[in-house]
Amino acid sequence: MSSDVAEIDVMKWTVSLEEKIKKRTAHCAVIGLGYVGLPFAVELAKAGYTVFGIDISKTKVEELKQGRSYIMDVPSSDIQQLVSTKKFKPTVDFSHLKGIDTVTICVPTPLRKTKEPDISYIVAAAREIKKFFHAGQLIVLESTTYPGTTEEVILPLLEAKGLKHGRDFYLCF
Predict the structure, then answer these.
(1) Which pLDDT score, from 0 to 100, does residue 155 have?
(2) Is 60 exceeded by the pLDDT of residue 97?
(3) 28 in helix, strand or coil?
């Protein structure tokens, strides 16, 4: 394939993703529904996006499906409305990432005894993303972590599938 053809393909999915974001037709996922992820997912859904909220806690997901918030800053009434209109879809099933345009990682990064962030949750989320990762996606790391995590940990994991950052997908912090 010539570089001109590859460039046209990149432009096509980039414009498509940009249009989906502008028109609010992009399907979004937020991984980690804690004190950062849940409010973010709710605001995305309130803005008109369809949002899959993914968490490994079945208890949290069930609470949300019932329209109950466990985060003080997120009213249960918001959860009830967004779940009933199917704008917010809480789940433990990462396979929904197959049809997702943007993925935001909002998992915890507790400090180790050495005062360094424990990035094991970030790595676990990236491994789940990799299973369902496809061209045209935007992946955003929102979790607090040390400089270099995006480029040194997540990028090589995702590019191992044969896709290239900036050509086939976008990754940012």
Answers:
(1) 97
(2) yes
(3) strand
CA 165, CA 73: separation in Å to the nearest integer? 35
Give the model's pLDDT for residue 13. 58
Give the separation between CA 144 and CA 108, rounded to whole angstroms. 8
133: which 2 tokens? 């990762």
- Coil, strand or helix at 95: helix
- Cβ atoms < 10 Å from Cβ of 40: 20
Q: What is the pLDDT of residue 35?
A: 96
What is d(CA 24, CA 18) in angstroms, rounded to the nearest whole number? 10
CA 161 to chain centre: 18
| 58 phi, psi to nearest 5 deg | -60, -35
> What are the φ and ψ backbone dihedral angles of 132, each rounded to 5 degrees?
-120, 10
